[in-house]
Specification:
Largest sheet: 7 strands, antiparallel
Radius of gyration: 18 Å
């Protein structure tokens, strides 16, 4: 009989199943945050034509700047994608078979633009009553199966009432969400996650979420990593990770983490008891 070693505590399983997210405190040391910000500030200030490929800098909104695929530009962001504290939770939610498929930095400046809650999916909308196999959530036999999840790594302090906003427990809701539900700090229906630089939120992307208005005088800076089940069947042939033409810019372990595989990956083996052996 095939057995899976869960890397989550019983309390973490209970909390994630109930709310759809976990917050890990003090994951990234201060000196690493400072190093990351130094690299990111360089990429933010140089001419866009000088951004090293496959990195891409662009604006999604007037207040928001993105830099995509940052792990291909500096080893710091590869190490972050494989951080043992993050990987322990990510592995515990993906049957020990995660694949990194999206990684970007976001900077948001002061704004009060209206935002609306959303869920992330594969882009294909299933009819009412169907479960989306590309963004599924199940819990049984002492394990959680969340095949599409994200991490939100805070690089600066995020005060209460601003920053990342979500509707706890909505990852399991089977009822139609009201259209254009506005983002707002309206407990207990919706909450924000106060965070310190170095904290990490990990959540099901089926959870209703978005960014609250940012009210601070300094920019909000965070890194968004998305993981899916490593044997996921929806991303093949779409030009996603790993970028073969830039394989020389990442380590073999990073390449493995971005690849489809049924085998336990090195980044996961390191956090399993006895390397995953019995």
């Amino acid at each position: 009989m095939y057995t899976i070693q869960s890397t989550l505590t019983e309390e973490e399983k209970w909390y994630f199943d109930l709310h759809g997210f976990l917050v890990l405190r003090n994951v990234i040391p201060k000196h690493e945050i400072e190093e990351m910000l130094k690299v990111l500030q360089h990429w933010l200030t140089i001419d866009e034509s000088d951004i090293p490929p496959p990195l891409h800098r662009g604006r999604q909104e007037p207040c928001k700047t993105h830099i995509g695929h940052i792990q291909y530009g500096h080893r710091l962001f590869q190490d972050l994608a494989m951080n043992p504290d993050i990987m322990r939770v990510v592995a515990g939610l993906t049957m020990n078979a995660p694949r990194l498929f999206h990684n970007n930095f976001t900077m948001m400046t002061k704004h009060d633009y209206p935002q609306h809650f959303h869920r992330d999916d594969s882009g294909f909308k299933f009819p009412s009553g169907f479960r989306n196999p590309h963004n599924d959530y199940q819990a049984a036999s002492g394990h959680i199966y969340c095949n599409h999840l994200a991490t939100w790594v805070a690089l600066v302090d995020v005060p209460p009432g601003t920053g990342f906003c979500l509707v706890p427990g909505s990852h399991k809701s089977l009822f139609q969400t009201p259209e254009h539900l506005p983002v707002g700090h309206d407990p207990p229906t919706s909450i924000t996650l106060p965070m310190q630089a170095g904290d990490v939120a990990i959540f099901s992307t089926n959870l209703l979420h978005d960014a609250s208005p940012w009210t601070e005088d300094y920019p909000r800076m965070n890194i968004f990593q998305r993981y899916q089940l490593s044997v996921y069947f929806n991303e093949g042939g779409k030009g996603g990770y790993p970028f073969e033409e830039h394989r020389d810019k990442i380590s073999e372990e990073q390449y493995e983490l971005e690849s489809f595989s049924k085998e336990i990956k090195a980044a996961v083996q390191r956090i399993l008891p006895n390397g995953g052996g019995e």
